[in-house]
Amino acid sequence: MNHIADTVTLHNGVKMPLLGLGVYKVEEGATVVQSVKWAIAHGYRSIDTAAIYKNERGVGQGVREAMQENGLTREQLFITSKVWNSDLGYESALAAYETSLEKLGLDYLDLYLIHWPVKGKYNDAWRALEKLYQDGRVKAIGVSNFHVHHLEDVMSIATIKPMVDQVELHPRLTQPELQRFTKEHGIVLEAWSPLMQGELLGDPLLSDIAAKHGKSVAQIILRWDLQHGVVTIPKSTNEKRIMENASLYDFELSAEDMARIDGLNENRRIGPDPDNFNF
């Protein structure tokens, strides 16, 4: 893990960048277009959006402009979107995929995820994702916000097991059981809100480790993710922070550093619990 282009190989052989830009709550239009362009110009190759973020058009525009300005091909980038809860049927998930592609202005996605495990609906949606994958419309498929029991349930009906599970994960919510399960089954874990929406940036222990390495707290947390083999997608609309969030490859956390950060776990969420959400 010594370069921004470093990848993890999904169980179907597709390579997914370990670092990406998340665009949750980034305003559609110029803001998201510019954020995507900055990220790609500074070496990011993965962009993560979702239908519910309502910024897929801007993400697509940013991707196309960045490709042209940086001399990149589509194959060099890794674009993710997600099917929203209201579309978690078989036909509706297929239609939602086409809508996302149209908004993004792309021919395919690298990764398509079920956004939340809506009880009684996500298995039908999974069958739709399998069809998209088998038809060559998407390079990889996965889920988001799935606990172990949700993964076990979908795997019981799946012909293709999920390649990725994107979940809330940060030093206050380390999800050890889920980390063990996904490793055991060859499912890549991906962290959303890795910085706990900024709440961790003043933590004394993290500040101490950051001072030791001459790095920011954000860089320490993101490096901790990478050394755990967890894909991480910090969000920023600030060019300086986008650059800082990618400056993770000139230092390494010791085993002691890693253990101290692991010890911050409180099983505390800032987002909804996937067993109890209302949207």
UniProtKB/TrEMBL annotation:
PROSITE patterns: ALDOKETO_REDUCTASE_1 (PS00798), ALDOKETO_REDUCTASE_2 (PS00062), ALDOKETO_REDUCTASE_3 (PS00063). Transmembrane segments: none annotated. Keywords: NADP, Oxidoreductase. Substrate binds at residue 115. It comes from the Bacteria. Residues 30-266 form the NADP-dependent oxidoreductase domain. Belongs to the aldo/keto reductase family. PANTHER family: 2,5-DIKETO-D-GLUCONIC ACID REDUCTASE, NADP-DEPENDENT OXIDOREDUCTASE DOMAIN-CONTAINING PROTEIN. This is Aldo/keto reductase.
